[in-house]
Amino acid sequence: MTAPISLDSLDLAQYIRPGDGITFGQGVGEPLGLTARLVEQRARYSGARLFLGTGFSHTFSPEHADHLRFKGIGGIGTLRKLASAGALDPVPCHISAVASLLAGGQIPSDVLLLSVSPPNARGEYSFGLVNDYVQAALAQARVVIAEINPAVPWTHCDRTLRAEDFTVAVQGDTAPLELPTATFGELEQRIARHLAPYIPERATLQLGIGAVPEAILASLADRRGMGIHSGMIGDSVIDLIESGAIDNMHKGIDAGVTITGVLFGTQRLYRYAHENPAIRLCQTSYTHHMATLFKVRNLVSINGALEVDLTGQVNAEAIGAQHIGAVGGQVDFVRASVQTGGVSIIALTATGRHGESKITAQLAGPVTTARSDVDLIATEYGVAQLRGRSLRERVKALVAIAAPEHRDALLQAARATWSDL
Asked: What's the pLDDT score for residue 1?
């Protein structure tokens, strides 16, 4: 690589061919200068295929499908507008499988766009805010274009980058995206209180982002000896580390280190992770791989859902044709936690924004997590323990945690199959 050039002088058509597969870091790891340039010059490499993870920016719009083709893990965040317009073609896959799909070419990565930190004194660049499947994309890429951004923290990852890894680099100055901590209210606090007895001291936590996970984290400040092994973390993890709740000393692996794939937070988290060896960003082939997860002690996975049916099937992807979620890493962690003697929690509010029940007689979308894998389902009305329970027992347990105004209708629907309920 020669010296970095200015973004304004970058002609992407010198590097991207029509039909190329293009990948980049998801969420806050999006190299905003490069992706804006990508959209601006899109007519010059018409038919280029983008693979999208989670989206928090407003870089891509349905009208950009005139020259760009969009695939992705789902309609998460701002990508919902692409999915709703039919411009995003979802790829249903576990996060643990993305690396192998990149290696096998099912997800093409001819060109990788990277957001990286400036180099340290040894000339090593960091992946910054996102590692997860970026390394797998790097291994397949013909062209690697790096946006070197002084606002991106130098984080400890399972490998570093050097100038020779880049085909070309540009100087970036756009502040990275931030994801503020979700606010929570009484409903989410009730869910957290119901779940408190199921989260033991010295548990190793995996959880996502959103109001319910934030409420659960806030309820754990008085615990001790806890650890983090997760696909993502947000700002609230800092609070638990500073309170002494998290020390990462009882996980069975990676003692003393918080393990994640991405930092989905604000500048507070970015500053905390900068040059901090106690925070390590790893690739998904480590964070989500069963060989790794089977070594984790007392794994408690906490995930959300759009809806759960009366037999325990979980939908976290779509309602009808509207893709507003993804498979993500839910099944990876659900299976690992249950099979290693830990706890798997699916937590959701009992009703949606229009008062509809999220405990349903029949799913309105796909099955993300099978009923044979579920453990605990929690709402503000309680916890349904489903592991090892029969179908009739599951119906009764799930109706009991549905909103009271929907329970009679759910029982009536269930009696069409089980008349003795």
From this structure: 65
Instruction: Match 């690992």 to its residue by tokens.
Output: 336
Q: Which residue has the tokens 């409420």?
A: 215
Q: Which amino acid is at 366?
A: P
The Cα–Cα gap between 71 and 52 comes to 6
Neighbours of 353 (CB within 10 A): 6
Taking alpha carbons only, the member of 65, 69, 32 closest to residue 52 is 69
* Domain segments of the chain as ranges: 5-171, 186-415
> Same CATH fold, 186-415 and 5-171?
yes
For residues 325 and 287, give the distance between their C-alpha atoms in angstroms, rounded to a whole number.
20
Other CB atoms within 10 A of residue 411 CB: 17
| DSSP for residue 8 | G
Q: What confidence tier does 381 reach under pLDDT thresholds 50, 70, 90?
A: very high
What tokens were used for 49?
């295929």
Task: Tell me the C-alpha to C-alpha distance, in Å, between residue 146 and each of 7, 25, 48, 66, 168.
Answer: 11, 11, 19, 26, 7
Task: Residue 337: name the closest of 367, 377, 372, 294 by CA.
Answer: 294
Report the C-alpha gap between 40 and 27 in whole angstroms: 20
Q: Give the single-character DSSP code of 176.
A: P
If you search the block for the tokens 């719009």, which residue do you land on? 61
C-alpha 13/C-alpha 11 separation (Å) is 5
CB 357 within 8 A of CB 403: yes
- 104: helix, coil or strand? helix
pLDDT digits (tens, 9 = 90+) for 308-361: 999 999 999 999 989 999 999 999 999 999 999 999 999 999 999 999 999 999
DSSP SS3 for 396: helix
Going from the C-alpha of 291 to that of each of 54, 253, 294, 401, the distances in angstroms are 25, 12, 6, 35
- Number of other residues whose CB lies within 10 A of the CB of residue 244: 13
Beta carbons within 10 angstroms of residue 173's beta carbon: 12
Give the chain's radius of gyration (CA, Å): 22
Pick 5-171's CATH classification: 3.40.1080.10, 3.90.1170.50, 3.90.950.10, 1.10.530.10. 3.40.1080.10
Q: Please tell me the class of the 186-415 domain.
A: alpha beta
176: closest CA among 268, 76, 38? 268
| pLDDT per residue as tens digits for the range 257-297 | 999 999 999 999 999 999 999 999 999 999 999 999 999 99
